[in-house]
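Q: Got a minute? One more chain.
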Amino acid sequence: MPYWMTSAAADEYFSAMAQHLQFSDVQVFAMPPYVTLVRSGSFEVEACAKLANLCDLRERFAQMLQLRHVATAVAVRAINVHIPSPRLTTQRRKDTIHSVLQRCTKEAVWVVGGDLNTKPGLLKDTVQAYEPALSQSFDVPSHGDLAVSKGVRLIQRDAWVGKRFSGASDAHDLVVVAGHLS
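A: Always. Here it is, folded:
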């Protein structure tokens, strides 16, 4: 595996970016292709794990972080997911989204973000039973780069890393998940 695809390289890249932006309280959790940045002044990270068996394509996985809000001690589950489009069918999209959201429902507060590669209509129909709020990386997300949540009032924030900018990705934009506990 080339070095640039390793957890160490991703950690190095995003740690340098956070330092450049003077975000001294940002922790980097890298599990390529996933990278999650967490503000340690707001959340304590209790666990970071790989979620497998999301659909019938066994190589697909997501990154899950179990967080605890520092000020309120509220548990928050955060899942960073990528539903890549090669070999993707409508059923695999639905299966992956349901699998991820079922793993969230154990917590009253959760956020799922990343590249969902799912059109807004299908996404809305698939997640409606989970009563989520919705945030996007831009007013019109590219490739389903967005977040859904429950128990978090999401605030729309435009991405500043990704395809629309030179650097971190040739296909997607960063999904910024900002908000307040409901």
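A: Residues 90-104 form the longest helix (15 residues).
Q: Perfect, thanks.
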